[in-house]
Amino acid sequence: MMNLMLLGAVSSAGDTLFVLISFLILLLLLKKFAWQPLTAVMQERANRVASDIDNAEEAKKNANALVAEQQSRLKEAKNESSQIIDQARQASLKIEKEMMTESRAEVARMKEQAKDEIEVERQKTLANAKNEISLLSVQLAEQLIKKELTDKGHAQLIDDFIERLGDSNELK
Amino acid sequence: MESESKIVEFLGLHFSVTNMIVTASACVIVFLVAFICTRNMKLKPTGKQNFIEWIADFSGNIVSSAMPERVGNRFKLLAFTLIMFIFVSNQMGLVFVLSIDDYQFWKSPTADPIVTLSLAFMVILLTHYFGVQEQGFKDYFLNSYIRPVPFLFPVKVLEEFTNTLTLALRLFGNIYAGEILLGLIAQLANSHGLFTWIVGVPLEIVWQAFSVFIGSIQAFVFTTLTMVYISHKVEGEENEKKEEIAKNVGVAE
Question: Which intervals of the chain form a coiled coil (chain A) (predicted)?
């Protein structure tokens, strides 16, 4: 009606119809060939951005957790190493002590052994000397008195003599 | 300048050949631009894809600023098509105007009142259609004409017609006047040979540049007003109140 008023005699309904239909066709074509792929891409990008942001946050969280874990692990390792060093030190101290006591005991034992050996040697020497002296004395006495004497009877005498000899030695 | 348009009669209806040519051309140009720009689309946009995405964003923002996202999403394609179509239409007559034997064959389709009135008529029809669809007929009627005060009913009915007329004639007037002046400057340039050309060419350039600006603004204005009219019909005051109450209740909870 308005169109009629404006144009007067000639009806413009045809033009209106043509504009409307061509606009509608344009709308549908754009929807099919431009709008749908366009919005799909834009939506995909929006999704991608959102998921990227989420991923980045997640990755950051993970990294932080990892750092904390590594730090705690490092601390643990430090503790452990100092513990090991401590233990080693104690063990070495213990070994040292043990070795010291052992060697001390060994030394004492060896000393004792040496003492004993010396004593035995002394006794042996003493006994030898005794025998020698008694033999010499017997021979001396035999020669002196030219008289047969039994070993047994004289041995007592000689022992006494040597005992006294030993005593006099010790006194010296 | 004031050339006639050839009229053909078909099925008792009169068709202007000029309007058919330029409208169809505008549609083809818009479609080609959109089609070429949306080939080989990538997540990381380049060149032409950036351009078409910028248009989609721009028209989408026009919709978003007029109404909430929930109802606005379905109108984004309409806004996209409208702004592209009207922008291309507005610029078509700036490059050249073709008249043969007093019959005009090339100009801006929007420099014809019939075309702009058809577009405005379609837009206003759509606002009523979506209004009824979104609110139901009763709420649509009450929100459109009776609320907030019943005595404004006649004014509100009149408003529907003035909306249609202003929407159409604003666009038509701007573009038509631009083309008229382009023609007048061209006549002036041709009137006295070389001397007037020296004056006329810069004038024509300046006016063409200004017309490009005017055409862009008018495409933007037409699309914006369309979305505003749709939003008036789609979301009644009652609905807004309900939403606000719901929001407040939600906050209180």
Answer: 46-146
